[in-house]
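Record 1 of the preview.
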Amino acid sequence: MELKMEANAEFKNNNKLVQYLFKKEDRVHKLIISLLLLSLIAGIETTLLLYSADQKGMNVLNGMSISEIGAMSFAINTIVMGALGLFVTFIIQILIVCLLFLVLKERPVNIKGICQAVINAGICIVIGSGVNAIIALLVKSKETTFTSLSLLVHDKNSILHTFMAEFELFYIVSLILFSFSLEKLALAKRRNAIIITIVIALISLVFHMLTVASGTYLK
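->
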């Protein structure tokens, strides 16, 4: 009897999570606040990752150290850059998805639903970044992603390492959630939702490979 009650309670909790993720939001300002909040959290996580990497002797600050930059300047700059970077990424992703809606002849283009789909995916990514930031602070390994297949590649500077980093647990979950959200919130056909998700994933892969090739941190 107790096990049944616990199972029912767990189901209700999970159901509340589903209701939260797939509840349609009509107020634009709430969507904007959600995007800004997620971006700010990501900026803080970026600061923690860079701090951890610097303490381990990884060259992630263009040859400079935190002591040379100044702790306060380092924190402000990395939080702002991390937050701004993710926010711009969100906006670009929303614009690309809107364009794909037009290309795939999805009418009407549900911009609010698309924004919610991007936010849902962003929640997974931010949670994943937080998990990796905490692990990075606790272990001595010179690694930035601990939940991806890149751990299996010893050469951290190889293209294979960068490619395998895309197979990251939270990122994969975010893509699945993104696809479902496009279908449920943006009212896209399932086939089109899957196509859009694949296109977004491929664009992300190319962008990631280019940024790492150019020497940008976070492989």
